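Summary for the steering committee. The consortium agreed at its last meeting that each partner would contribute one worked example illustrating the joint modelling workflow. Our contribution is presented below. We chose a case with several input lines so that the handling of multiple components could be demonstrated. No manual editing was applied between input and output; the record is shown as generated.
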Amino acid sequence: MLQLVLFNLTNGLIVGTFYVLMALGLSLIINLSNVVNFAHGNFLAIGGYFAFVLTPFIGFWGALLVSPFLTAIMGYVIEKLVIRHVYARNHIYSLLLTFGLGFILQDVCRYIWGPSPLPLNIPAELSAAITPDLFFITWYRVFMVAIVAVAVAGLFAFLRYTRVGMRIRAGTLDLDTVSALGVNVSALRSYNFAVGSFLAGLAGVLAAGQLGLNPNMGDDLIMPSFIAIIVGGVGSLTGTLLGGLLIGVASALTTVFYPSAAEAVIYVIMALVLLIRPRGLLGEEGMLQ
Amino acid sequence: MSTVTTRADATVVRPWQQLVIIWALLLTVPFWLPLVGGYTAIAARVLVMALAAMGLNLLLGYTGVLSFGHAAYFGLGAYGAGLTLKYVAASTPLSILAGTLLGGIAGTLFGLLLVRRRGVYFAMVTIAFGQVCFYIAYKWDDFTGGYDGLRGFVRAPLDFGLFKIDITGNGMLFYYFVLVVFGLAVGLQALILKSPFGRTMLAIRENERRARFLGLPVEKHIWLSFSISCFFTALAGTLYALLNNFADPLGLNYIMSGNIVMIAVMGGMRTFWGPLVGAVLFVMLQDYVSSMTTNWMSFVGLVFVLVVLFFPRGLMGVLQKRSGA
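What follows is the complete predicted structure of the assembly.
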């Protein structure tokens, strides 16, 4: 029983880290640009496929480094080409637009790499278990959690200490003032979108190593990421981080006791949070909008 | 947001003329549709999707609040009707009533949790609630049929005591049955929009802050509007189940929600008949593209992108704007 609980707990933590990476990227974009990127899960898939293409040439480690950057560039280009046109409009248009983009990206993946699942080869030393007793905890899982921790720390440092990061934070609070102070808001939004896409790409590579690749691999992750944001609280990245881990672990522990409710439990958590603390765990008052 | 309200009288085609044209076309569908290569079942599907989108549009176009989870109420309507026919009684009116109540009441309850959120967050929470219903239908195998959907029911003949109308097999009779329900529902919608309550919805859409300063209970109105819109969409869902003799879990999925929103936007969400026009376009496109290619997703996606970028007002919106300017 202990092993089972431990197994699901680590599982939950790992799934939770995917949610966190996805949700942080989504949250960044929502906070600054008020756009819910429905295609975020497809960005994740594309990041994974980039790694699949690159691995034979530069190995898994090289792909892990490069494909998030490629995903970020793709995000940057898509933002410049289409998404920026809807910022000034009702948010319904950004939802529909990214919804349509997601369809297109998914079909592109299916067209290029086929509908059947593909494996992403990870180095042999990573696929070994850390101890025979805890056979289910491979080094890859430990490594994933470590990478996500590094990425999250890096993101928070980026937002706190770099010029662009500070502007992004300031823009989240009051974009008009930031603009009036002479910051190029349009460029800022593009960089911000690229950072969000980077996180999706990174999550894609990590997910591909664990679960393999298929064109709709992001679909299962997007909805929990939304909920992580709602639960964590609007406008708070720390809240998103907490929300992602919480729902990951909660759904994994539910798997132990009542497997068929594993998905339902995250919605129950969301409903409870909305009832008891409508602004989310760490959401700020007045950011309810 | 545009500050222009929908002034239908600014158009060259007057509202009553519009009404006559639309109803003349709808009433004669079985006669002219085969001539242009269509079939009656597809016309019934257009009406059903139009009703779902018009229900959503009470909220989206007339209250200015976006739900991206209306598939949930559409799907609950369908399952409610299907389950009633399968387990309770072979009565079409009863199944419609049960499905509409199921979807509408679920929407009313969810609405309570929703009303304090606005903008993208309102939309995100509606999506999440929609997915709850999807997972329930998906997981509850022995009751809902799970992944395969709910089968094993057929629509029952209408029994008026003195005479019976057999809508079970005959596509044309069933089309007229859907048209009658559609007409009643749409008439009710028009009455709601004309009422003081409907005017208040418009006021909230145009300027929520001002409406609040006037002392209007904005949250209550948004909640009511959400609830009413869910009832109409659920009604459309029941008709969908009767049309196909089947309830599909994918009808509850957020992709369906996106389609319903798209239908309203494509036709023109600021116009009363826009969603009907949107449904004609959308159903035709879907039917055509899925028969032509397996890559239908990129086509539908491309249409989404193009409509958003180039036709955000929708077809009716463009027509009204052009003739009104």
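The first strand of chain B starts at residue 158 and ends at 159. Chain B touches chain A at residues 1, 60, 66, 68, 113, 116-121, 123-125, 127-129, 131-132, 135-136, 139, 254, 258, 261-262, 265, 295, 297-298, 300-305, 307-309, 312 (CB under 8 Å).
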